[in-house]
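User: Hey, my collaborator sent me this sequence without any context and asked if I could get a structure. I don't really work with proteins. Can you help?
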Amino acid sequence: MTKGRGDAWIEAGFAEIARSGVEGVRVEVLAKNLGVTKGGFYRRFRDRAALLDGMLQSWSAGRIAAIEKQTSLDGTTARERLKALIRLYSERMNTQGMAVELAIRQWARSDDNAAAAVASVDAARLRNVGHLYRATGMAPEQADAQAFLFYCFIFGQSLLFLERGPRKRAQLVAKSAEKLLDEERATG
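Assistant: No problem. I've predicted the 3D structure and written it out in structure-token form, which is a compact way to encode the shape of the chain:
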């Protein structure tokens, strides 16, 4: 795969996986969506499997780089960074990103390569957020458990369609997030 043009196919693959799952990521569909011929695809990828591998590599590398950047202290405290992460993932709903995430997780239920990509992303997320909790003074085992709860909250709240207005939802998310940053837990 060459850089540049191959990236357009991968991005089109992400758009399609978000729309219709991995089954919808077909060369004909992507070519039509990109307004090009299938021949352009085969100049960049050996076959559909190579595209799917490229998508998994791009997704996992992107998610891991994002969490490493988002958890970097860069002059802030671990608690401030955790608050910023909660705001990032709960206030601004990235519906396209969540659709891709869910589709890849669904794919991972039946494909070993997708499962390995998801496992590596989950491990990086838990490791990096666990590091932040350790930096607040938490014992390692407790920090790891808190990181797990953090991600249960981050992903769970994005999946719930609460019968409340945006303001009530924001209040509920903020109150719940306080529990993830509880000072008493940080010193335990």
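In plain terms: Residues 112-135 form the longest helix (24 residues). You can pass these tokens on to your collaborator as they are.
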